[in-house]
C-alpha cells in the first residue's frame, strides 16, 4: 500500500483520541466518530502512572499533561476507623525510579491536551456506530443516521459496551463486579484546613475503600468511593445522587473522611463492571483498543494507561506494515494482549484485597503493606513496578 491508510476510530475518549494522535503522527488519514453530540467535561479525575506518562511522551504531549496535573510526594493508606497510616508510598521518587512521574489529572484536561495536539484528523460528533463489518481489504462502519464509512481499518475505542467488540468477538455482556462507586469533586480551598488534601490518600475498610487525590494543579480534590453492594446496577457516570447516600454508606468511618465527602457539591454514582480479556482483538480489518478490548477495574490505575499504550503500538504496527495491514493488526494484538490481560487480572486480585471484611485479614494485609514499604525492592504498596517500569517507546524501537 503506497497511499496513507484510512482509519476510522469509533469513540472519542482517551483511547480514541490517543490513537488518532498516534496514527496521525504516522501519516495516516484519520476519522474519529464520537456518539456524544459535543465534547463535554465529565468531572472525574484519573491517575496517570509512569508508564502512561512515557506513552504520552511518545505522543509528544507529556509536558503539557504534567503542566495541568498534580504530582504528590506521598500516597498514604489509612485505616477506615482510626485514620492510622498503614502505608506511605513515595510516588514523588518515581521520576528517578521509573523514568517518569505519577500525575493525577482531570479527565477533561487530558482530553483537551490530546484533542488540541491533533491537527488533521476529522473528528465527528453525534456519530453513533451501530455495526461494523469487514469488507474485502477493509471494513465498513455503519451509523444510526444511515451513514457509512469505509476504511482500511476500523478501530473500536468505544468502551466497555463496544459495538465494534460485538462485531469482533460476538455478543458477550460485561461482568457486574458487585461494587457501587460514587465520585465527587471538591474545591481544595473549600476543604477544612486540618484535612490533608495535597497528598493522595486511600482509606481502606470492610467492604469498601475511598480514594482522594488533588487534580488540576491542586485546585480540586477528586474523591472516588467504592463499596460492595448489588443494590445499584446502572453503569452511567452521569447519574446524580445526594451526598447523604454516600455519608450513610460510610457512617462509622473516620470523621475526616466524612467531612471531606460533604465538601463536594455534587455526587454521581455508577455500578462497576469489567470484562474478561477479549479472546481476539481483530476480525478482518476491525480491531479493538482500550476498554473495548480489556475493560478493567480501576484498582491498579491502568485503564487510561493501557489505552494510550495500545494507541502507540497500533500506530507503530500500521506504519511498519503499511503494505500488509493484516500483519499490522496481528503484530499489534500479539504485542499488547499479554500485558493487558495481566493488568485485567491483577486489578481483579487487587479488588479482593481492598475490601477485606475480617479484622484479622485486614491486619495481616496492613502488616504486609508496611513490610513492603521498608523491605521490598519493588517499593510500591501494590507491587506495581512491573507496570510502571514499562516504556512503550522502547517497545517501538
Lay out the secondary structure.
Blueprint: E1 6-10, H1 14-25, E2 29-34, E3 45-48, H2 50-58, H3 62-68, E4 75-79, E5 85-89, H4 94-98, E6 103-106, H5 107-117, E7 122-125, E8 129-135, E9 138-143, E10 148-151, E11 153-156, H6 163-169, E12 175-187, E13 200-205, E14 208-215, E15 220-228, E16 239-241, H7 243-249, H8 255-261, E17 267-274, E18 282-283, E19 286-288, H9 291-294, H10 303-320, H11 325-354, H12 359-375, H13 385-388, H14 392-395
Parallel strand pairs: 1-2, 1-11, 2-7, 4-13, 11-19
Antiparallel strand pairs: 3-6, 4-5, 8-9, 9-10, 12-15, 12-17, 13-14, 14-15, 16-17, 18-19
Helix pairs in contact: 1-5, 1-10, 2-3, 2-10, 10-11
Quick tags:
397 residues; alpha/beta; FAD/NAD(P)-binding domain; eight-stranded mixed β-sheet; 27% strand
Structural class: alpha/beta
- Oligomeric form: single chain
Please state roughly what percent of the residues sit in beta strands, choosing from under 5%, 5-15%, 15-25%, 25-35%, 35-45% or over 45%.
25-35%
- Percent range for helical residues? 25-40%
Distance between the termini: 22 Å
Extended strand count? 19
On the 0 to 100 scale, the average pLDDT is 92
CATH topology: FAD/NAD(P)-binding domain
Number of helices: 14
Strand order of the largest sheet: 5-4-13-14-15-12-17-16
Number of domains: 1
Rg result = 21 Å
The CATH level-2 architecture is identified as 3-Layer(bba) Sandwich
Rough shape? globular
* CATH top level label: Alpha Beta
Q: Quick one: CATH superfamily?
A: FAD/NAD(P)-binding domain
Strand count, sense and barrel status of the largest sheet are: 8 strands, mixed
Low-confidence parts, pLDDT < 50 over ≥5 residues? none
Amino acid at each position: 500500500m503506497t497511499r496513507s491508510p484510512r482509519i476510522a476510530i469509533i469513540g472519542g475518549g482517551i483511547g480514541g483520541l490517543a490513537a488518532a494522535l498516534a496514527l496521525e503522527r504516522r501519516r495516516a488519514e484519520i476519522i474519529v466518530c464520537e456518539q456524544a453530540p459535543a465534547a463535554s467535561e465529565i468531572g472525574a479525575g484519573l491517575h496517570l502512572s509512569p508508564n502512561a506518562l512515557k506513552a504520552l511522551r511518545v505522543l509528544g504531549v507529556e509536558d503539557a499533561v504534567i503542566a495541568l496535573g498534580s504530582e504528590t510526594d506521598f500516597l498514604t493508606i489509612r485505616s477506615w476507623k482510626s485514620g492510622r497510616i498503614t502505608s506511605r508510598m513515595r510516588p514523588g521518587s518515581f521520576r528517578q525510579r521509573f523514568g517518569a512521574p505519577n500525575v493525577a489529572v482531570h479527565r477533561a484536561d487530558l482530553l483537551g491536551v490530546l484533542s488540541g495536539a491533533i491537527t488533521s484528523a476529522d473528528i465527528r460528533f453525534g456519530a453513533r456506530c451501530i455495526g461494523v463489518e469487514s469488507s474485502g481489504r477493509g471494513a465498513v462502519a455503519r451509523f444510526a443516521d444511515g451513514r457509512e464509512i469505509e476504511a482500511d481499518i476500523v478501530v473500536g475505542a468505544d468502551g466497555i459496551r463496544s459495538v465494534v467488540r460485538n462485531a469482533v468477538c460476538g455478543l458477550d455482556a460485561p461482568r457486574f463486579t458487585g461494587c457501587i462507586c460514587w465520585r465527587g469533586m471538591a474545591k481544595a480551598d473549600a476543604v477544612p484546613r486540618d484535612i490533608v488534601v495535597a497528598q493522595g490518600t486511600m482509606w481502606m475498610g470492610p467492604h469498601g475503600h475511598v480514594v482522594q487525590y488533588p487534580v488540576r494543579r491542586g485546585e480540586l480534590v477528586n474523591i472516588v468511593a467504592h463499596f460492595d453492594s448489588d443494590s445499584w446496577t446502572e453503569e452511567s457516570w452521569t447519574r446524580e445522587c445526594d451526598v447523604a447516600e454516600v455519608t450513610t454508606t460510610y457512617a462509622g468511618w473516620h470523621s475526616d473522611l466524612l467531612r471531606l465527602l460533604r465538601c463536594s457539591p455534587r455526587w454521581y454514582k455508577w455500578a462497576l463492571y469489567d470484562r474478561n480479556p477479549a479472546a481476539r482483538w481483530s476480525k478482518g480489518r476491525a480491531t479493538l483498543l482500550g476498554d473495548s478490548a480489556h475493560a478493567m477495574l480501576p484498582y491498579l490505575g491502568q485503564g487510561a494507561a493501557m489505552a494510550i499504550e495500545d494507541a502507540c503500538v497500533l500506530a507503530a504496527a500500521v506504519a511498519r506494515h503499511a503494505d500488509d495491514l493484516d500483519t499490522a493488526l496481528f503484530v499489534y494484538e500479539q504485542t499488547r494482549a499479554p500485558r493487558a490481560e495481566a493488568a485485567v487480572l491483577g486489578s481483579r486480585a487487587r479488588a479482593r484485597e481492598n475490601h477485606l471484611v475480617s479484622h484479622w485479614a485486614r491486619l495481616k494485609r496492613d502488616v504486609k503493606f508496611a513490610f513492603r514499604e521498608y523491605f521490598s525492592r519493588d517499593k510500591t504498596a501494590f507491587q506495581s513496578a512491573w507496570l510502571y517500569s514499562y516504556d512503550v517507546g522502547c517497545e517501538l524501537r
